Sequence to fold (341 residues):
Amino acid sequence: MISRIQRVDAFINLGKFITDLQNKEVIQEWVELANSRNNWFTPENVRKSLDAIATVFLDPANLRNWADHYPEPLLPKKIGVVMAGNIPAVGFQDAMSVLMSGHILLAKPSSDDQVLISALLKELVNIEPGFASSIQFVDRLNDADAYIATGSDNTARYFHYYFAKKPNIIRKNRTSVAVLTGNESAEELMGLGTDVLQYFGLGCRNVSKVFVPAGYDFTKFYESIQFMDTRFLHNHKYFNNYEYNKSIFLINRVPHFDNGFLMITESPALVSPISVLHYETYTDSEALQTQLEANAEKIQCVISGEGQVPGSLSFGEAQKPGLFDYADGVDTMQFLANLDQ
Fold:
């Protein structure tokens, strides 16, 4: 088994590979192939995801601090990882966690995101050949000693049934919400627009619902995000969803606001369709906090200004997770470290 120092150095060098201009043609091939296999993965979004991996996850100081926080396993185990495919390379952190912890990765990428995961791990092996024996792409996970699986609420029931006899992390649907006061600046509302629309709203860290004071006027929010219109009007997959949801609202006479690419409608539901943002009004901050706590298992992130909600992120920060920001709040590295016990 290669040492932790070797593993850390390999991942650091992977980050350098992604950002090195000498490799721009290779990265461009990754970008184009990922986009050709999944039209939701626009070149802009693929590059954004790869850049975040390289500059945040694979930053030398961040990576060393993160790795040093956890003990080494006494005996490497086979970890089956069922990856999501909703945003580009979303399964990379799980793969990196398994490999950095010293275990063996049995990877089952989503059919929507095979290109990037395969390309990143292949390049990692080129950088550090010692990883070759620790990375396997598989269709079945029967040989795994433990599991990390991400999917919908429906697939989670399937995972619980098949993986119940071994240690596991099973993630269900989650989404993110924002709390507004009406005093937000145009810059903050622009950041909220990014939280809602980045990656077309497909990530669990995307805001799908906002809580606003009674009588809130969305005009300023719409004005702050209007510059984004071209990006969404010209993406056929997104715009098809917009037109479909708009027709449903019109046929059913559902009251809503509309700026030509994002509709806002009042709804108690946390999760909204693509191109739609839900809202709910509140009059009492303490009652709202109680409501958020009651739905904590369904909420990935809460966004608010000036820390209005304890533990919340600032506007524009939803899609900027760090290495310690684990999906569903479950510490993946600690789970992997505890497998010896």
About this structure: The radius of gyration is 21 Å. The domain at 175-307 is CATH 3.40.309.10 (Aldehyde Dehydrogenase; Chain A, domain 2). The CA atoms of residues 191 and 315 lie 5 Å apart. Residues 4-19 form the longest helix (16 residues).
